[in-house]
Specification:
CATH architecture: 3 Solenoid
Strand order of the largest sheet: 3-6-9-12-14-15
Order of helices and strands: HHHHEEEEEEEEEEEEEEE
Radius of gyration: 16 Å
Distance between the termini: 38 Å
Structural class: alpha/beta
Number of helices: 4
CATH topology: UDP N-Acetylglucosamine Acyltransferase, domain 1
Shape: globular
């Protein structure tokens, strides 16, 4: 567990050019705090007798950080939530490794029915500020969701989804997200 927490810290430090030290990230990054509390709440969620406590813990984290991650969601390693405020991750959402969520992004549902109702994000996905990914859709590895996009259909690996409703663009040359040059906001 400590290794996973260190990885979360390192992911934030590597992805944010404004981060001057790991200590600054550990003490002052609400996105990291929200992920750390989620990891504890998710462990609690696995025990039926602790589900209420897990839910209350997740709501306390929401109040403190502005990030709401349901303890039932499944989140991979090295998730980085930049700025954090307004991020929502629903109960049946699945998030792969090395994903970046910018402020105001939502991994939400489109229905009130029970069962799988939230998105699944592959590894290396970037979700831009204000983007909404809704329903049990699949977002493929390395895909990028542009700022303020509303995604209600699957997005293939390596593709870019922009607009309302989101339209999928396939890059001419596939490449992975590089925080030094790529910013999902440029795909508006």
């Amino acid at each position: 567990m400590l290794e996973v927490l260190r990885e979360d810290l390192e992911a934030a430090h590597q992805h944010d050019p404004a981060a001057r030290s790991r200590l600054e990230v550990a003490l002052g990054y609400p996105g990291v705090h929200a992920v750390w509390v989620y990891r504890l709440a998710h462990r609690m969620w696995q025990e039926p007798g602790l589900r209420l406590a897990a839910r209350l813990l997740s709501q306390a984290a929401r109040a403190a950080t502005g990030v709401e991650i349901h303890p039932g969601a499944r989140i991979g390693r090295r998730l980085f939530i930049d700025h954090g405020m307004g991020v929502v991750v629903g109960e049946t959402a699945e998030v792969g490794d090395d994903v970046v969520l910018f402020h105001g992004s939502t991994l939400g549902g489109k229905t009130m029915r029970h069962g799988k109702r939230h998105p699944t994000l592959g590894d290396g996905v970037v979700v831009g500020a204000g983007a909404k990914v809704l329903g049990p859709v699949w977002i493929g590895d390395g895909a990028q969701i542009g700022a303020n996009a509303v995604v209600v259909h699957d997005v293939p690996a390596g593709a870019i989804a922009v607009g309302v409703p989101a339209q999928v663009r396939l890059p001419k040359v596939a490449h992975s997200f590089d925080p030094e040059v790529d910013d999902p906001a440029i795909y508006i």
